[in-house]
Amino acid sequence: MSIEVREVCRNFGRFPALRDVDLEVREGELVALLGPSGSGKTTLLRIIAGLDFADHGTVWLDGVDATRLGARDRRVGFVFQHYALFRHMSVFDNVAFGLKVRPRRARKPSAAIAERVHELLHLVQLDGFGARMPSQLSGGQRQRVALARALAVEPRVLLLDEPFGALDARVRRDLRRWLRRLHDELHVTTVFVTHDQEEAMEVADRIVVMDRGRVAQVGTVDSVYENPATPFVFEFLGNANVIPVEVRGREVFLPGSRAPLVTDSIHESGAAVLYVRPADLRVAQPDQPALEVIVDQVLRTGPLVRAEARVVATGAPLQIEMPHLHHDTRDVVPGARLHLRLLHWSVYPSAAPAQPETGHDAIGVAATRRRTTA
Amino acid sequence: MATSRRRSPLPGFAPALGLSLVYLALVVLIPLAALFWKTASLGWGELFATVTSPRVLASYRLSFGAALAAASVNVCLGLLVAWVLVRYRFPGRALADALVDLPFALPTAVAGITLTTLLARNGQVGRFLAPLGIEVAFTPLGITVALVFIGLPFVVRQVQPVLQDLDAELEEAAASLGASRLQTFHLVLLPALTPALVTGFALAFARGVGEYGSVVFISGNMPMKTEIAPLLIITKLEQYDYAGATAIALVMLCVSLALLFAINGLQRWGRGRERAA
Amino acid sequence: MAHSAVSALPRPHAGAAFAPASTEPRLVRALLIAAALGVVGLLLVLPLCAVFGYALSQGWRVYAATVVDHDALAAVRLTLLVAAICVPANTAFGVAAAWAIAKFDFRGKQLLISLIDLPFAVSPVVAGLIYVLLFGMQGLLGPWLIDHDVRIIFAVPGIVLATAFVTFPFVARELIPLMQEQGDEEEQAAISLGASPWQIFRRVTLPNIRFGLLYGVVLVNARAMGEFGAVSVVSGHVRGLTNTMPLHVEILYNEYQTAAAFTVASLLALLAIVTLVAKSVLEWRIAQQRRAHDDEAPPGAGGELR
Predict the structure, then answer these.
(1) Interstrand relation of A304-311 and A214-220 (parallel, antiparallel or unpaired)
(2) 8 Å CB contact between A212 and A10
(3) I need a surface site. Which of A96, A256, A335, C42 has the fewest CB within 10 A?
(4) Contacts of A300 (CB under 8 A, 6+ apart)
């Protein structure tokens, strides 16, 4: 089933939880709503589910206007962060619930229900757990029961609200991979909410990055990671070094460097900010555009070499990360004076508001970008 | 664009609220309104005169005074009982704990006649006190004893949860800093229990002021001496002095409302303390 | 939100781990226990035993004769009738009010909660008085009632109403904190799975609140059967017709039929004992339910992902 959200707004009192949000989820996709707390992602998910209602805007499920429909009529499967298992019912009864509450005419006979429940318990790898009570299960097991329960009614879409948020790290990693495999097997359109960018990038087909009630960027994992539309997206998806630069037409001048970086697109000339990841820095050849730094501290932690340095021209700190077997790392020692080239970077207008005031399309707003050669 | 009404995903709000409000209005609000309606028809002058007549004032003094005394006694007894029930293990603890609620569960008339019979001069308890010159039944002392019976669970049940949730570490810290047990109790535990004690006091007091069934038998009901305010209301009603009864009741109602307000505030204070701790 | 000791959420004092570090010297402990037991014994146990003692003071035959006396039986019947009306009515109200308050947000919620608390604060005699002022002969609706030949005051309906007023808050005040504590996520899950409103209540909410509900019912019942002050005002004290058991006790006592009075009182005391037992059991069950919900099995107890 496809989902379309148009111009949805939701306020809690005076707090704008969602501002003019548009979203499209295609049939069979696995989409992650990613953002920090307060970004509106859970609110959006609940509005899609019919557990909350927008102040303005519409929700379309499979091309049909579902805005006024309640959760009961939308046939969505919802999985809560804290499982919301029916505490007084066994695992079997929990999973069977959606099938048992169907109106008499539409209800399957108990034998068929039992078969489906066992099928689902097998799917979530909890065979034989039917008689247990939720209080006898671990967090990861409870979440799997919650998933089985949601799937039992053959929902058109599966919505998961920070499904692994309440679990510890190891269980979380196992479960998110398992979720991906499950999705590949079942092909149910799935939307899940998370604040963990690693989780989103590992599991989802497409990511929707949300910031303070707006969609900051939508795209595949790669496109969002490599071409972040705004500084917010850049910083949310990974570490960032922020460097003030000078832009002239197609050329970007690093502080203290005479050779400019060259971009594909034309930007507004003037002061701007350049964002580069610590892992995208290498030692430069003499004639390449480079950043001059002095290394302060070096930490060799297993697979990575981390260094803290200072940009000579501005005195601002810079984080460097290199794989430990890279031939450049022998030059990274405390006190060393290095010229660093940028493998990959993004440029944004200086003092741009983190969110533009018009619409959701940070993508459209001027000056983003681009990259260079190694 | 389409605007949707804000609603909750759960059903049944309107019928549940509607039913509640209708029932509330029918059983509580409209009848209470009748009291104020009647008061309005009295006029301030008559109201004031009734309320300040000597007999009425005496009954207020008695009801409020005895309730105050009883609530104070209950603070001490209640703290003792709560402490022992929470802190110590002994045979019969569970039974004693359950019995604390007896004054709630026992009909007031039963408590009334039992206490009276026990404390009368020839009663099982009264006969030990009579030679000492202590008269309990048919005196304000008897009223106070009855109110102590009634009010005990209020204090105990307020203090128990707070005692249970108290962190043992607080006392251990105090001991490690050199405080004696008594000092720890006085300086660390008592302040932590104060909101609960005050709330329990207020609840016991509120209940005692309006208490009728358990008091009317033991009080002797002599006007100006041992006549409690609720009884005076009934007496006036029997004499068809509706106005007089209403006036007395109005004062009691206002006091009750003020106490309710105060108790709510006290409980919020108590919860705030708990969170801050 | 107000709690009174009467319906403060039952705490797990039975069977909960008790506070260690009780370092009073043994002697002090023993003295305190003795003192507390003394209070409990003198103030609580003694009167309870005395009821039965006085009731049987003239022997079993007199006891039995009193119980089957015509007026006594009529009082019992009336008491049961009043309870049979007030308990379901106040329970239904309590459930409805708790549903609205615990699962939804609306303006005036705090006011509603305070209004529900109101009957607690009012003296029972005042509670009876207000019904007299409304339905009595000189009351607000008096003339209308006389014209239509409807008797409320000094008749059974008045007793029912006054009792309903006095027992009004009990169920609501038990359920509101309980349902608030349980949240509404299970109900949301149920509705997302396609359950109808009634199915949600019956299959999800009710099983979760059943002990709290029973607890409230036990309290309402005890108070409804034992109410004296309010009923005293609105009843006509007509033996055999408008006397509940507590009123009958009063009449017998005032006529110096002490043993008979205590006989009827002993029946009420039995009710009190049953109430106490039911209360304790339910408190324990509620605490148990709460603990089970908070528990979580550690990972590695089987059923791990492969």
Answers:
(1) unpaired
(2) no
(3) A335
(4) A306, A324
Strands A157-161 and A189-194: parallel
C41, two tokens: 């014994």
Is residue C211 pLDDT above 60, yes or no? yes
Cα nearest neighbour of B6 on chain A? A53
Contact in structure between A368 and A231 (CB atoms under 8 Å): no
Residue A58 structure tokens: 């519409």
Distances (CA, A) of A30 to A152, A181, A220, C91: 19, 11, 11, 47
Q: What residue in C sits closest to B266 (Cα-Cα)?
A: C2
A299 touches chain C (CB under 8 A): no
Strands A64-65 and A30-34 come out as unpaired
Question: Which stretches of C45-141 are DSSP H helices?
Answer: 46-55, 60-67, 70-103, 109-121, 124-135
Spatial neighbors of A219 by CB under 8 A, at least 6 apart, are A206, A207, A227
Could A135 and C301 be called an inter-chain contact, meaning their C-beta atoms sit closer than 8 Å? no
Kindly give the parts of chain A with pLDDT less than 70. 265-267, 351-374
Choose among A42, A74, A29: nearest CA to A190: A29
What string of DSSP letters covers C193-253? TT--HHHIIIIIIHHHHHHHHHHHHHHHHHHHHH--HHHHHHS---TTTS--HHHHHHHHH
Cα dihedral B217, B222, B226, B229, rounded to 10, equals: 80
C305 contacts on A by Cβ (under 8 Å) = 125, 140, 174-175, 178
Closest partner CB to A137 (pick from C203, C289, C297): C297
Q: Is B176 on the interface with A (CB under 8 A)?
A: no
Name the neighbours of B, counting chains with at least 3 Cβ pairs within 8 A.
Answer: A, C
The predicted complex's ipTM stands at 0.87
Check: CB of residue C124 under 8 Å from CB of residue B212: yes
- Rounded CA-CA distance A334/A338 in Å is 11
Give SS3 for B72. helix
| pLDDT digit string, tens, across residues C218-261 | 999 999 999 999 999 998 777 777 889 999 999 999 999 888 99
pLDDT category at C304 given cuts 50, 70, 90 is low
Q: What's B212's DSSP letter?
A: -
Residue A159, both tokens: 């919505």
Per-residue tokens: B228: 């409690």
**Structure confidence at residue C22 (pLDDT):** 52
Q: Are C224 and C285 in contact (CB under 8 A)?
A: no
For B4, which of A7, A46, A53 is closest by C-beta distance? A53
Question: What is the predicted pLDDT for the residue at C236?
Answer: 77
pTM, entire model: 0.82
Nearest to C228 among B13, B108, B164 (CB): B108
Is B252 exposed, middle or buried, given 0-12, 13-18 or 19+ CB atoms closer than 10 A? Answer: buried
Q: Mapped to the 3 state alphabet, what secondary structure does C141-187 carry? A: CHHHHHHCCCCCCCCHHHHHHHHHHHCCCHHHHHHHHHHHHHCCHHH
Chain A residues touching residue C188 (CB < 8 angstroms)? 51, 71, 78, 80, 84
Scan residues 190-229 of A and list those with Cβ closer than 8 Å to C.
Answer: none
